[in-house]
Amino acid sequence: MGTENKEIKNRLSQLRKKMKENGIDYYMIPTADFHNSEYSADYFKTREYFCGFDGSNGTLVVSADEAGLWTDGRYFIQAANQLSGTGVTLFKMGEEGVPTIEKYLTDNMISGQTFGFDGRVVPAEEGELLEYLAKLKNVTIKIDKDLAEEIWEDRPTLPCHDAYVLSDELCGRSFKEKLADVRSKMKENNTSMHLLSKLDDIMWLTNLRGNDVECNPVALSYAMITDDMFILFIQSGEITDEVRAYCESNDIVLKDYAEYGEYLSELVLTGNILIDKRNTNYLTYKLVADKASEAGYEIKDCSNPTELMKAIKNETELKNIREVYLRDSAKLTEFIYWVKENVGKIPMTEYSAAMKLDGMRAELPGFIELSFPTISAYNANAAMAHYEATEDSAAEVKAQGMLLVDSGGTYMGGTTDVTRTIVVGEISDEIKKHYTATVSGMLELADAIFKDGCTGRNVDIYARRPLWDIGIDYNHGTGHGIGYMLNVHEGPHNIRWKNSDAANKTELKPGMIVSDEPGVYIEGSHGIRIENIVEVVNRSESEYGKFYGFDHLTYVPIDLEAIDKKYMKPETVKLLNKYHKTVYDRISPLIEDEEVKAWLKKATAEI
Prior knowledge:
Blueprint (H helix, E strand, L loop, with lengths): L1 H20 L4 E4 L16 H6 L7 E5 L3 E5 L4 H8 L5 E4 L8 H8 L5 E4 L6 H13 L3 E3 L21 E2 L2 H4 L3 H14 L4 E4 L2 H8 L1 E2 L11 E6 L3 E5 L6 H9 L2 E5 L3 H7 L6 E3 L6 H14 L3 E3 L3 H7 L3 H28 L7 H13 L4 E4 L4 E4 L23 E6 L1 E3 L2 E2 L2 E6 L5 H18 L3 E2 L4 H13 L10 E3 L8 E6 L5 H5 L7 E4 L2 E4 L3 E4 L2 E11 L2 E8 L17 H18 L6 H10 L4
Parallel strand pairs: 1-5, 3-4, 5-6, 8-13, 11-12, 13-14
Antiparallel strand pairs: 1-2, 2-3, 7-9, 8-10, 10-11, 15-18, 16-17, 17-20, 18-19, 21-28, 22-23, 24-27, 25-26, 27-28
Helix pairs in contact: 5-11, 13-14, 15-16, 15-18
């Protein structure tokens, strides 16, 4: 530990030397790539390199005589251990008396100083806020320097993997059809150019996929769309003969990813340009904004048109998704049977259980990769909503209590996400009460009827009501959109009661798919989450308007050992029985093992 901390101190000292050379007084290093992806590749782990903390969320701020790391409650213990002896102070985000990064900078920076960060790894909206604060303090901002470049000698290379083409048959619509729709939205916004930086949007639009971000089948890329040209910036090393031929036949102009910066600096605007500030890095945005200002054109800041188009799945996508979810559901059901049969009889940890499920999924036809690292959490660990067991730290799963497993895969034809909390031994009456309320919330939201024009915020109460009735809540959203062979977390729609732009503005429309995942988290005791994915569908139409509802895509049994009917409304009991009948009807034909099938019959019996 001592050597490692000396190493960190040495790296910080090199960083401070470079800061001085570049006239930078405070330097900020967030956790992000150039596209604000959910996961950062090793090349982008600069914050970890300079402080030793390797959690998935954290921002380092360094000055001549101080260094601080900001992270959230999931990582307080880990960060305290990893920062020990490095000279880096831990700032526990959200705790009373702990300043935000903005407050810290405002309190500490003085007029005439310079604040620096790599503008490629900070979203434009955040960059603008920092710029505003700097102006208030008469501080200069420097955003064109990645100081790690000159210090990190053995820095990993940018991830670079072969891109691949999805057939139009698999996607339901061709690139040219999608591009025509985007161009018509550009016209509506009175723009003749559109810069696209969001990786899953680019992949969806081009019908290409890659492997540059963990669990997201995307390639590092940018796209520039004009009225008559489509330029794709992607690493040359990722372009196979198939991809090149596809791009040529679709008039996609290929440029190397490394040429993007130079292209931007030489860019000549031909009209107003559409840029989504939420999904564009600050350096890109500033370069384009300066050019627009010089040329007398406007930047239209609005959501990428691709975002909503991507969220409303077409008939081909929906057909494939439904099939993929059935196969995935059958496999998870087999896993639940395996857990129940083997717990207490063979050595089992949270980690080994996750590995077992990951291996079972990988056997399914068309499997590409996991859609996120499997969450396998036993008893009290499940009270941490985003707990991830490692081989070294995993708890033993014993024949007592419950195991929560949140998992999913990406296949040719769809991306899945599902959570089940599995009873592995004796549980208390209180746990049964919490479990029954969670299941009731999931089923009641899935059964909701709502009018055209409703957003996720309008329907969230269906899932929370059974929990609110007993004075309990969960501190996360109820639902998120899911990509088609893309990111497992996809907007713009979601289901949550708290105020948020996307939840307020994005209406739920037929063709959208969304998760339905209420939960209960009792610190030090237990955690329960039940997650189904549902599809928004038409239900009826009358003189009062169009009415929508949800159809289940997930068909995995709910654990009846944790259900107590006395905590359930009679109509919700009917919903559970109806759901279980469909589970058996849909997935039993996909299960070959007769013992598993016999168990499934009992597991889905009427209560």
